[in-house]
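In the design runs reported in the main text, the only information available to the sequence generator was the tokenized backbone. The following block is the verbatim input for one such run; it is reproduced so that readers can re-run the procedure and compare outputs position by position.
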């Protein structure tokens, strides 16, 4: 009875797919959308990954180390028996896996401290740090980059966190389950074991019928505008699907994928990085967000923050090692950021609460502007005013660093600051920080 039921279910699904495909509706697309775009395996432009330490990381136990001040509340327990360390010109806290990370990558990173998110709310902090504004409406940085550099790539922007706002410039794609893309590209296979459930001759008949219908529609002149739009989108989808097939073929078997859990905890950043870099290699994407969501440490701060920080630094290390192995490292830029920081003292639950002052790290391989720290905070982790021209503390002529200043400089670094699309989303601020000037 069970075998017969399973067989009937497979036949019913096969019949449904056949009938749907013969009717020309194997894929349903909304007006103006593109499920697939033109693959560019020869794309040799820049690549970008945004690392979202979601929840509010503790910069004072990471890249803006703070020791305790006599007579004041304890800022960090690690500072009771230790002091800040240096990797090149970059100070870091002797906490979690920081030593390994900073000693390996200080030559490739710029640290920006004292960034004022102007909020203690997670959602606003995410919007502000990734778009440059406190309110909605501006695109996230990867949306701008993708819309300018690769608007026709099939899945140009892969989003696993961060701020998924495109401002209608481009669509983002989620890739949390690689089986989904393979099941879309290979609809004749059973997703969980790859066995065929549509016979080769049936699939050939379906494809031939689809192509005949499309060829017929291609020559019709009496279609309404929306019908022409659907026809052209679907025709492009059929012609350009080969690129995504190349990406799907790069995805390793399940037992070779990076795990989505570590010691029973959900921690998919390594897998997110792996899939993003394979998509870059296949020429179907050029920006991606990778994220970890365990930084909101209102209790048991030291233990929880240590695990979260090491999870992120380990994933970023994996990201760079894999990019090097794939021949992509020389084109890659990584931006690490969080919603905001944590309070410079502990609460009654031995946790730390929300604090608007945070940091960002920008990484490029052997960048001339790397091995530097810009921006500054005082002993209590309050942001100090910085002179945009000298990048030195200047209470008289300086200004606090805000996320818009970081993203303005990042736009210039990425070569998109003068692009007409970028110009539609300007930040109206006279302060332009030359963070990437190696002589400052």
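Verbatim output:
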């Amino acid at each position: 009875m069970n075998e017969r039921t399973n067989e009937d279910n497979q036949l019913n699904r096969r019949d449904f797919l056949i009938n749907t495909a013969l009717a020309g509706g194997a894929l349903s697309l909304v007006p103006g959308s593109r499920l697939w775009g033109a693959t560019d395996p020869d794309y040799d432009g820049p690549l970008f990954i945004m690392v979202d330490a979601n929840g509010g990381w503790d910069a004072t136990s990471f890249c803006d180390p703070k020791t305790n001040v006599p007579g004041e509340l304890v800022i960090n327990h690690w500072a009771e028996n230790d002091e800040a360390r240096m990797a090149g010109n970059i100070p870091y806290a002797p906490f979690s896996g920081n030593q390994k990370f900073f000693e390996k990558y200080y030559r490739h990173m710029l640290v920006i401290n004292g960034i004022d998110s102007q909020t203690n709310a997670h959602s606003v902090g995410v919007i502000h740090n990734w778009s440059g504004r406190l309110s909605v409406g501006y695109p996230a940085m990867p949306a701008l980059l993708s819309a300018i550099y690769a608007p026709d790539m099939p899945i140009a922007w892969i989003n696993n966190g961060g701020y998924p706002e495109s401002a209608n410039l481009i669509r983002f794609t989620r890739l949390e389950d690689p089986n989904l893309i393979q099941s879309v590209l290979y609809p004749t296979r059973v997703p969980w074991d790859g066995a065929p459930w549509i016979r080769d001759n049936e699939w050939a008949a379906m494809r031939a019928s689809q192509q005949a219908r499309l060829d017929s529609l291609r020559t019709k002149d009496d279609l309404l505008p929306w019908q022409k739009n659907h026809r052209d989108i679907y025709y492009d989808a059929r012609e350009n699907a080969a690129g995504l097939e190349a990406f799907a073929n790069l995805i390793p078997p399940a037992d070779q994928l990076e795990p989505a859990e570590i010691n029973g905890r959900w921690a998919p950043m390594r897998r997110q990085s792996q899939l993003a870099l394979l998509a870059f290699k296949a020429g179907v994407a050029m920006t991606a967000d990778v994220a970890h969501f365990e930084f909101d440490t209102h209790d048991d701060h030291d233990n929880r923050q240590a695990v979260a920080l090491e999870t992120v630094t380990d994933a970023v290390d994996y990201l760079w090692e894999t990019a090097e192995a794939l021949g992509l490292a020389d084109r890659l830029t990584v931006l690490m950021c969080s919603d905001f920081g944590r309070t410079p003292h502990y609460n009654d639950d031995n946790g730390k609460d929300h604090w608007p002052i945070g940091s960002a790290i920008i990484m490029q391989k052997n960048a001339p502007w790397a091995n530097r720290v810009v921006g500054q905070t005082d002993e209590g982790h309050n942001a100090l005013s910085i002179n945009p021209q000298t990048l030195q503390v200047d209470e008289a002529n300086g200004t606090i660093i805000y996320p818009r200043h970081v993203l303005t400089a990042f736009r210039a670094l990425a070569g998109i600051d003068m692009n007409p699309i970028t110009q539609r989303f300007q930040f109206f601020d006279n302060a332009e920080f030359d963070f990437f000037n190696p002589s400052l």
